[in-house]
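Notes to self after the call with IL:
- keep both proteins in one doc
- input above output, always
- annotate only the second one for now

Protein 1:
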Amino acid sequence: MGKLCKGGCMIGPSILNSDLSRLAEECQRMLDAGADYLHLDVMDGHFVPNLTFGAPVVQSLRDKFPGVIFEVHMMVSNPEQWIDDMSKAGADVYTFHLEASENPTQTIEKIRSKGMLAGCGIKPKTAVEPLDDLAPSLDVLLVMTVEPGFGGQSFMSDMMSKVRYLRERHPDANIEVDGGLSPKTIETAAEAGANFIVSGSAVVKSSDPKSVISELRGVVNKYRKVNQAES
């Protein structure tokens, strides 16, 4: 697989926003535009009220894109249940929700035992401190900036206090934000310390996704340099 750039900027388009009838072509379009990884939203209709796709779709994409980083964002009620399937399907990063796991430390250990990197996310109403406690054992810390389950929501700028909290305590961590990220909101996220950017409609629906990804990356890199100079 490709390599996660620890502490560096990475842009991951959310393919759920693409034309799903042309999924492989849409993924290639995002990669040609400069995407660093592909963000695959897996929803079970229980943890969130929407239903998307599972391991068979991930496997079919893996067959076409053998060297690309796939992050599966598991918006599911029982994240432990799908670790084996997603590992076999070719997922690289398995990001589950803290709210859905009874024993997140055990979940992380199982993810790693299957050869995947571990990510953990929190919903907007969830306190950041439990995620902070897990941070040393995680590869990706995800702060949701919309309520998970549906695309097209407005960016929740008040979530940036969580990003700052995590960045202050973990200067080299990969802090991911997901929901409403666009050229209009990237400055707020980047200034707070986010370095992994999931962008859906702003990138995928753009007639020039390359320029959007370039703009997002430029802003994040600008603030990474500022924050590193201040630390």
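Protein 2 (the one to annotate):
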Amino acid sequence: PSPRFAMLRLFSRMARQPASRVSKGFRGTSYYSSVHGDGKWRATTILSIRKDGEVYMVGDGQVSFGDMRLKPNAKKIRVLDSGRVIAGFAGATADCLTLIERLETRLEQRPGQLMRACVEMAKGWRTDKYLRHLSALLVVVDKDVSLTLTGNGDVVEPHDGVIGIGSGGPYAVAAARALMDTDMSAKDIALKAMGIAADMCVYTNHEFVVEGFSVEDIKKLNEGKE
């Protein structure tokens, strides 16, 4: 066949392919993704710090879709289990809310037992083919434990009390770990580290939401449990 016919046949094949498979550009980046955005929700840095008997969680407020900022003041941190559990989420919004709803159900069955509720929830979605691969991450804390939950069914407890998820998570975790040996409180470390992450990550802003348990709060929770 002539070169012109071969070129027309190539274009015809490309037209039938999904946009994500068309025209891989330099360094493996698709033309569609680089020009129109990759279609993924990039919202969030969530950071949790546990230090000296206190635990605090900070989340930013930016919601992005591709290269566009949709909202600057979203609230990505929720208080659950009658004020005894704090949860922050990153990922696809629907998937995050699904995980939180399932966690709330487990906490109603196991009030005050965060670790057990999380493990039982992970076992449940491992056997559910529709929920097996949720595009979401959760950070959940109570007065005793801090955990990371993934949509793949993983439950992870940090070794140093520092957890960071989302697009700016690595920056926030690195900054927080550098400050853990100072005299700063858990809340001050969380805010300082989040500020550094927001300065570096384009998908994170400075509209912070802060929730946590101070030493006095934990004392009250322990007294109520007794």
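Annotation: The CA atoms of residues 35 and 218 lie 50 Å apart. The first strand starts at residue 45 and ends at 51.
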